[in-house]
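Workshop exercise sheet. Pairs work together: one partner reads the sequence aloud, the other fills in the structure field after running the prediction. Swap roles for the next sheet.
Pair: D.N. / O.F.
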Amino acid sequence: MKGQMDTEMGKIVVDEDVLGKYAGSAAVECFGVVGMASVNMKDGIVKLLKRDNLRHGVNVSIEDGKLVIELHIIVAYEVSILAVAENLVDNVKYKVEEYTGMEVGRIVVCVEGVKVIN
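Structure field:
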């Protein structure tokens, strides 16, 4: 499914991969987020993704004309998961809406793991 906006000059269509990469980039900028996670449902294994694969930790869909973003993250050890999640939601919502012009209806944060940082 692709995001689209109607403007006075015509229609703008944004691929969900672009939206996913953008949301993933905004997510990893947040304090306490170590990175995005890829979950192998078959094996139940969580893998920390490299910077160029951020899209795999993000699911984007559209419900009632609004974006629904699901983020799979790994958080740093000894940080408040609640504080990280609230900051993450605010940051991703602001950046995606500001730069795409599309409305975010909901953001779901799935904490897939915790990593100790030296």
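Discussion prompt: Residues 18 and 55 are 8 Å apart (CA to CA). What would you look at next?
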